[in-house]
Write a structure and sequence with these properties.
With 382 residues, the chain is α+β, with helices and mostly antiparallel strands. Helices cover 35% and strands 31% of the residues.
Length: 382
């Protein structure tokens, strides 16, 4: 295996949902699976066992369906309830206004990876895992990736699709530390509202509850953003104290919180840069790590994958990279700006917060504005 060289068209570093989706889109557009290589440090079993919850917009579901990776186990979101704690005003987005089966779905990360990996396997995509890229040498006619097992992958274009999380990344051109930590857990409630997701803004950051059936319909995926020092204390609470504080922050719209899984925490920030050279390009979290408000990160990455595949299917060349960068610039800028503004504007106290609360009420009344916002969240800038 050492000193073996694999010559291909496209090398994809990172076999998470975005990297797998890119490989699957390339295969669907006619690129021979043997000319595509996925490289990832984790085994497929490790990735599939990941229990994290992810929100898929309706637009992302359409993309997954295009590569035969839908349906998969998921809970539909029919409504999204948005509110500001301590202020009047709220907004409710409803699938009926859009004539859609759902605004989006909540799924396990591992289930999405499993579905996409099956599509790639069926297409004959070359998968190198577990394997790490040790050196990266861009040349005039391609990119040489030296792996930790001694093999070399020589690709016409190399794609970085493994971004990691904020706090473990190199700084990019557009960076902001939100001074927040996200606590992630699964929680149960006494009075669920079927297929309704909640985004509740607090002084410390947004609190999201996404319906995720655990067989009884009472479970939700929680993303609770707060100051880092408080997150340390809250994460150490026993379940009863944790659920009590969660109930105080969220309110009683779902009755009481009755159970919680172990909590996981990670820092939040914006770290983005439209990174590309003649034969390399970054997509997904490798190009833009966003605040989780409105759940736009993965959905933006899947749109990256779909467009890049369309460009590369015409020929893996510098022209395809340029075409991708031009085509994706507007959607990337708008989505980054939208999540950054939402993460900051509704956080903290001050005299503007009552006005922001009223803006939610106005959004609920002004239907065209509400429909436009929902459309951006589901499909991005088209």
């Amino acid at each position: 295996m050492a000193d073996e060289r694999l010559d291909i068209d496209v090398a994809i570093c990172g076999a998470g949902p975005v990297g797998l989706a890119l490989a699957a889109f390339l295969a669907r557009r006619g690129v021979d699976g043997k000319r595509i290589a996925l490289v990832d440090a984790k085994s497929l079993g490790q990735a599939i066992s990941d229990p994290r919850s992810i929100a898929l917009s309706w637009g992302s579901v359409q993309l997954l369906d295009e590569v035969r990776s839908w349906p998969l186990p998921a809970t539909p979101i029919h409504e999204i309830h948005v509110s500001r704690r301590g202020q009047l005003g709220r907004s409710l987005m409803d699938r009926a206004e859009h004539g859609l089966p759902a605004l989006g779905y909540v799924a396990r990360y591992g289930d999405v990876v499993d579905a996409l990996a099956r599509a790639c396997d069926k297409a004959g995509v070359t998968t190198l895992r577990p394997a790490r890229v040790e050196t990266f040498d861009e040349q005039h006619d391609g990119v040489a990736l030296r792996l930790d097992d001694g093999r070399t992958v020589f690709a016409q274009v190399a794609v970085q699709a493994e971004g990691g999380v904020f706090g473990q990344q190199d700084s990019r051109a557009q960076q902001r530390d939100y001074g927040q930590t996200a606590l992630i857990a699964r929680v149960s409630v006494s009075e669920p509202v079927a297929q309704r997701a909640f985004e509740r803004f607090t002084d410390e950051g947004p609190l999201a509850l996404l319906p995720q059936d655990g067989g009884d319909g009472h479970q939700y995926a929680l993303v609770w953003c707060m100051r880092p020092e408080r997150a340390v204390d809250v994460q150490m609470l026993d379940d009863a104290a944790f659920l009590a504080q969660l109930g105080e922050a969220f309110g009683t719209r779902l009755g009481t919180f009755t159970a919680a899984s172990p909590r996981v925490a990670f820092p939040l920030g914006l770290n983005a840069e439209a990174r590309a050279t003649a034969r390399t390009v970054a997509i997904g979290n490798a190009a833009q790590t966003l605040h989780p408000v409105a759940g736009q990160g993965l959905n933006l990455g899947l749109r990256d994958a779909a467009v890049l595949a369309r460009q590369l299917a015409r020929g893996a060349s510098p022209g395809a990279v340029d075409g991708f960068m031009n085509e994706r610039a507007q959607d990337r800028r708008l989505t980054i700006s939208l999540t950054d503004t939402m993460a900051r504007a509704f956080t903290g106290g001050g005299p503007l917060q009552p006005l922001l609360g009223l803006s939610l009420a106005a959004l609920d009344v002004v239907k065209p504005a509400r429909l436009l916002l929902a459309d951006l969240m589901m499909f991005g800038r088209r």
